[in-house]
Specification:
The complex is a heterodimer of chains A (346) and B (259).
Chain A lengths: L1 H6 L1 H49 L2 H11 L7 H37 L2 H15 L3 H15 L1 H11 L16 H25 L3 H9 L4 H30 L2 H6 L19 H8 L5 H28 L1 H10 L3 H15 L1
Helix pairs in contact in A: 2-13, 3-13, 4-8, 4-10, 5-8, 6-8, 8-10, 9-10, 10-13, 12-13
Chain B lengths: L4 E10 L2 E11 L4 E5 L6 H7 L10 E9 L2 E2 L7 H7 E4 L11 H11 L6 H14 L3 H4 L12 H13 L5 E5 L7 H14 L4 E5 L3 H7 L2 E7 L6 E8 H6 L4 H7 L5
Parallel strand pairs in B: 2-10, 3-8, 3-9, 6-7, 7-8
Antiparallel strand pairs in B: 1-2, 1-4, 4-5, 9-10
Helix pairs in contact in B: 3-6, 4-6, 6-7
Classes of the chains: A mainly alpha (346), B alpha/beta (259).
């Protein structure tokens, strides 16, 4: 090893200097990429603030008029207008998240721990394909297939579980309800949560799995001891990403839900709730400038909610970043090895 | 008290690849049996068949019999979970559960058994196991801190404590000191010598001095050639094998001609 590097000392020196430049250049490229993200985020925030400003601090009369027209005469105050929308947004997304999380974890565990390889391979790809389906397709499917066909199921839920407030009331037919919307949202966010969970479960160190198996753990006990604790943080961030997608989903909601402006928990009854994003899309084409400004202000609220969700995710998974940094300690060694290999092939 | 293992005509495979051929060996109870040989000679693979960890690897299987106290571990009615609870294992790299405290790591196996322990029983067991693993004095004041906060050698002893806490009859060790410094290695070798009073120990090591220092019996594995299965060349009392090997191959290996 020493012998080879000494005979090729000049070439090694040259490649080292080149590498150092490459390093600097690469560093700045990544810096610029980082700055672009910051810039875009700032630009969007500024846009929302400027556009929403007339509704917040501008001519009161115009805003009152706009809100009255947007809410169909229900209210003239911004917060009473946006309140039910926030409620509807969080309700549908949260329901979707809860359902999707259970199914996604089940599927991810099945793929990584139980399924024979060919089946796992096929399932993985199907899930990735599902993630690529545009939301408008899900909306169409929900509106044309699920809405007409799921009524018997909702009716059944209503009859036998009507004592739970969530399923109380008179089940609507057609079911253009929060329940149907949440079902579609569940299917929409399922792939992203599932594929992230699958990736993280797959990375569970064999050493940890064998530690559990060596103690006489069954497959499920091994999952509880090794796989789930290892994947917890990844699953949380996957769930938050899914929640983010559900919060902002427009088309599917717009195409399925019969909107309402109540703080209502009745999932099986139509015309109870509406989400912020779908409301903007529905009202935008018919609004004047003051109306648009109010709608954008509701968009700003959605932006803040999503932002809070992301911050929460960061806090919950904060330690994950530190562990990544620890692993980086290996890098210099790897680079050295590559140098040695380079000089050997020279 | 330990129990002996009897391996009869064992052949080990990874899918179509025949990894180890025709091993017959008796592992004496309450003794230390060392398995040595060059890298890739199948000694770890063989060890992993002794508590049915080998079949964890996809498509891996073996034929033949492994008898623990006369009962074939590969018999039809044998539950492999029970096998692993009775035959503990310590791995090449320390692998404490990262989210668990030192105490919970020691109790992990017992909790899998669904045994309900009172707090004092659990405390006693933790102390006994950690003392058995010669770690108690170092960690007695920080039992609730995470297991991975310990040093490498301590982590490995924690893993030994975790295995010991299950009261296994046999303890398998797969190069337990290969990732450790000489002082931690010595600590673990001393510990192994202590542990043989209660358990039967099988240790895989690539370090011949280690085998010579602490084992009672030694088995030497060797590959027969590229792509061919490896086999057990010689199995004997350690002193015999090192001072007076019966096979030329063994002599070459222990005198440093290859490997």
């Amino acid at each position: 090893m020493i012998h080879t590097s000494s005979t090729h000392s000049t070439s090694t020196f040259v490649s080292r200097t080149l590498c150092r430049y490459a390093d600097t250049i690469f560093k700045y490229i990544t810096l610029i990429a980082g700055l672009i993200i910051l810039f875009i985020l700032t630009a969007v925030t500024v846009f929302l603030l400027i556009q929403a400003a007339p509704a917040m601090v501008g001519d009161k009369n115009q805003t009152v008029w706009a809100i009255r027209s947007l809410s169909g005469g229900r209210t003239i105050h911004f917060w009473t207008y946006v309140g039910p929308l926030i409620f509807g947004t969080i309700l549908t997304s949260f329901l979707a998240l809860v359902c999707a999380l259970f199914i996604a974890l089940g599927v991810a565990l099945f793929i990584t721990q139980y399924a024979p390889r060919p089946l796992a391979f096929i399932l993985s790809h199907v899930i990735d394909l599902l993630a690529a389906v545009p939301s408008v397709i899900f909306g169409l499917w929900g509106g044309l297939v699920l809405v007409p066909s799921t009524y018997p199921f909702w009716k059944w839920m209503n009859t036998y579980f009507g004592w739970i407030p969530l399923f109380s009331g008179q089940a609507s037919n057609p079911p253009r309800t929060v329940a149907t919307v949440s079902l579609v949202l569940t299917i929409m966010i399922l792939p992203i949560i599932c594929s992230m969970a699958r990736d993280i479960f797959q990375q569970t160190p064999v050493l940890l799995k064998e530690a559990a198996l060596g103690l006489g753990a069954t497959q499920w006990e091994m999952i509880k001891l090794a796989v789930l604790p290892f994947g917890k943080k990844g699953v949380i961030s996957a769930a938050m990403l899914g929640l983010g997608r559900a919060l902002g989903e427009t088309m599917a909601v717009l195409m399925i839900l019969s909107p309402g402006d109540l703080y209502s928990w009745k999932l099986l009854v139509a015309s109870q709730n509406q989400t912020i994003a779908a409301n903007i899309a529905a009202q935008f084409p018919e609004s004047d400038s003051a109306g648009v400004s109010v709608l954008i202000a509701t968009g700003l609220v959605l932006f803040v909610i999503t932002f809070l969700v992301n911050i929460a995710a960061h806090h919950l998974t904060g330690n994950a970043i530190h562990t990544k940094q620890k692993n980086n300690i290996r890098h210099p060694l790897c680079i050295n090895k590559q140098f040695i290999r380079c000089s050997e092939t020279d | 008290m330990g129990q002996g293992l009897e391996v009869i005509n064992e052949n080990i495979y990874y899918g179509a690849f025949h990894a180890v051929e025709n091993v017959t060996m008796s592992i004496h109870k309450n003794a230390i049996t060392a398995l040595i040989g060059p890298s890739g000679c199948g000694k770890s693979t063989f060890l992993r068949t002794l508590n049915r960890m080998h079949e964890v690897t996809p498509k891996a299987y073996c034929t033949g019999e492994v008898l623990l106290d006369g009962v074939n571990l590969y018999g039809k009615d044998i539950n492999l979970v029970d096998v692993r609870r009775q035959i503990g294992m310590v791995f090449q790299k320390a692998n404490p559960f990262p989210t668990m405290s030192i105490r919970d790591n020691v109790l992990a196996g017992i909790r899998l058994n669904h045994k309900r322990l009172s707090k004092t029983e659990a405390d006693d067991l933790v102390e006994w196991a950690l003392q058995g693993a010669n770690l108690w004095n170092e960690v007695r004041d920080k039992l609730s801190s995470p297991g991975i906060a310990l040093s490498g050698g301590q982590q490995q002893r924690l893993c030994i404590a975790r295995a010991v806490a299950m009261h296994p009859s046999v303890l398998l060790m797969d190069e337990p000191t290969s990732a450790l410094d000489p002082i931690s290695t010595l600590a673990i070798e001393d510990l192994i010598t202590e542990l043989k009073k209660e358990f039967t120990i099988v240790i895989v090591t690539h370090n011949m001095q280690q085998a010579a220092r602490c084992s009672d019996y030694t088995g030497f594995f060797n590959v027969q050639g590229n792509g061919k299965p490896s086999h057990l060349v010689e199995f004997n009392q350690t002193e015999q094998l090192f001072s007076n090997p019966l096979q030329r191959e063994t002599d070459d290996y222990i005198s440093g001609h290859f490997g």
